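Take a record.
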Amino acid sequence: MLAHSSHLPIVLDYIDQNHDITAEDEGGVMLALQQRHRVRHIRLSVPSPHLWKLVPAIGGEFPMLESLFVEPRIEGRSNTNWTLPRTFQAPCLRCLVLTNIDLSPVFQILTTCVSLVTLSLNGIYPANFSPNDLLQHLSFLPQLKSLTIDFHHNVMNTPIEGELLGAPVMTYVTFPDLRRLQFVGTNAFLEVLLSCIMAPTLEALDVFLFPKVAFSTPNLLQFMSTAKNLKLTTAEFLFEDSIVGLVIDPDEGSECSFVLRVTGLYLDEQVSFMAQIFDGFGPVFSAVEHLTFLYEKSLLYVGPNEVDPSQWHRLLRLFRNVKTLLVEDDLVRDLSRCLESDDEEFVLELLPELKELSYSSGVSLAGDEFNGFIIARQVAGRPVTLVRL
């Protein structure tokens, strides 16, 4: 077929779902890759042993190639990286998505891909590069609109990160057109990157942090403070089995502007992580008017869920302009207790602009949840409407 359509562009899209790539399929992929002057798009998702056979054929110049997506199909996320041939060239490349890749040759290739709009590096392992190396090569991509930096989860269990973060950072990068930034990795690496990046047109920030004893995020705070297009009006905390997340939307039903998730097993740990990470974020969250607390934990993760009320207070104080608050059943008892106080000043300090408090009713609830808070607000002249769903 390829021989009889020599003037048509080639779109190579091969995904092996069952780990049973045949010799015939493998030969067809190789044949297509040899037609470098015709290949427009490449997507390969195949078992690692087969990928290592196919990768050499990606070497050389692909003058028409616009997108390259390569993912080794493996059980879990392997430490084994594959290597893109250093001879690979694609002057028209606009989208590059690579998983479990050795970054050394990729860095060299990025210097020639000045038209790149989307770059996604997934499952990377920083054994041979520093934040400065990464920033230097990203500086060659002024047209980027979407950037993903996704570290291998094993990074958090090695001393490599600490060693690399000790190196001086000399490169500062401005991405004038960057709309979306996604990061998966450690708090420390994120802080280094954000201290050196400017993205004035950013519209969406998605962060997943690996767990640690204590979090510090001054550069994340500064970065978000300067990202004027991050419109944050609706915030939702979601407590799940092993992950807690904050999702903030510009408007209900719109695409998320800001997502931050972190690994944490028990509720008390998750609330503490959120309070640490967002310490000082009050000005950033000042536009949030609708706040929700959701709980989706299974019985598998029953554990120390008694949360120190001061940690809830740290979170709630960040949202001074919230008008509506929704609390799901399993969090009602905790949050109702932390809101109760005989101190009028304290009652007005938490969610001072709150107008409506809604909560889902479960069979285990007594029916008088939040009554103390509602009465205290009425006495203080700041009434709140209570809605039991």
In short: The radius of gyration is 25 Å. The first strand starts at residue 10 and ends at 15.
